[in-house]
Specification:
The protein is of the alpha/beta class and 335 residues long. The chain has nine helices and 16 strands. Strand 1, helix 1 (12-22) and strand 2 form a beta-alpha-beta unit. Helix 2 (37-47) packs parallel to helix 3.
């Protein structure tokens, strides 16, 4: 589902830059823009967008753009769109919080900041409504009878062995109750999951534990599951270009330009991931397969088919040397 958005900013260059960054997200659809208070208010009331990018400290004071526009929206709308403030003044952030804005992004707008704002936006959306169950017609006469609900048949998915564990159980208790394979000993948001596409359905539904035909790791790609609020996101490790630390979370950058945030530290990923993943900096782990260039003089690594440059520090110089050795030991020609 696409979510509509409008941009309200007195600077047309800023409008174009914000639109250029937002256009990278397929879930967003641009409607229109306005450069002053009156036109912006009319634009929102006409189109009812889901998201509004709002400048609150305009260069042109005659535009009257400010947080007061949000108050005006509450006078006319039952459901006010989510407001993402885009401004060059970080001193107004505390005041903006009082207006319950979705996010506060500093200009020039960066794609990672917008991506995090949109993830927060999607978390505010209501879950899809389940279809209404078929109700039995009311009896015309006689007392009402309480009919017990029919238990739902659990759906069979492609990953039948992912189980939600009650929060009160400790990790030691879980390990004692459930026999696990080494890959299953990781936390759920860094879980390595194997696909069972060729397993007969009778084995999945039987009383006895299913028999899994073991195959070498080369036969199947490593799968990483990032879990957030019941949302299971499955990623093939070979699609990851690099991982970047972001405080107590880690941004996972994929080869297609997408970025996924996992609420685990970079140290955790360094522990659970092995070759071709190598740590080169306190803030970066890189996939060797996506390294196109290493400049030891400038202490940077280049990522294939992008303009991304990752710094590496002296403390990880041995790891960088290992990357060079790994690449040169293959089918290699030096000119």
């Amino acid at each position: 589902m696409k979510h509509t958005y409008v941009i309200i900013d007195d600077n047309q260059d800023s409008v174009l830059k914000t639109q250029a960054v937002a256009s990278r997200f397929q879930s967003l659809r641009f409607v229109a823009s306005a450069n002053n208070y009156a036109d912006g208010l009319d634009l929102i009331l006409e189109h009812h967008p889901a998201v509004v990018f709002l400048e609150i400290n305009p260069e042109n004071t005659a535009s009257n753009l400010s947080l007061s526009l949000i108050n005006e929206l509450y006078r006319h709308l039952k459901t006010v769109p989510k407001i993402i403030v885009t401004t060059g003044d970080k001193e107004l952030a505390f005041e903006a919080i009082k207006y319950d804005v979705l996010d506060y992004c500093l200009k020039p707008l960066a794609a990672p900041d917008l991506r995090k704002a949109l993830l927060r936006f999607e978390m505010t959306l209501p879950p899809p409504q389940a279809a209404n169950p078929v109700q039995s017609p009311k009896q015309e006469t006689g007392p009402a009878i309480d009919v017990p609900p029919v238990p739902e048949t659990p759906a069979v998915t492609d990953y039948p062995f992912i189980i939600d564990v009650p929060a009160e159980k400790t990790e030691e208790a879980i390990e004692a109750e459930t026999p696990v394979e080494p890959a299953d000993q990781m936390p759920i948001n860094a879980l390595v999951v194997d696909a069972y596409d060729e397993m007969p359905m009778t084995e999945l539904m039987g009383d006895e534990p299913p028999t899994v035909v073991e195959s070498s790791k080369e036969d199947k790609p490593l799968i990483i599951c990032v879990k957030s609020y019941g949302d299971y996101r499955f990623i093939e490790a070979r699609d990851i270009c690099y991982l970047q630390a972001d405080n107590n979370s880690t941004d996972i950058h994929l080869f297609n330009g997408e970025m996924i945030t996992a609420f685990k530290t970079l140290k955790h990923f360094e522990t659970v991931l092995s070759s071709p993943f190598v740590r080169i900096h306190n803030s970066y782990i890189v996939n060797i397969d996506y390294v196109s260039r290493i400049h030891t003089g400038n202490s940077v690594c280049y990522i294939k088919n992008t303009t991304t440059k990752l710094p590496f520090s002296k403390s990880y110089k041995e790891n960088v040397d290992a990357i060079i050795n790994s690449i040169t030991n293959g089918n290699y020609l030096e000119i």
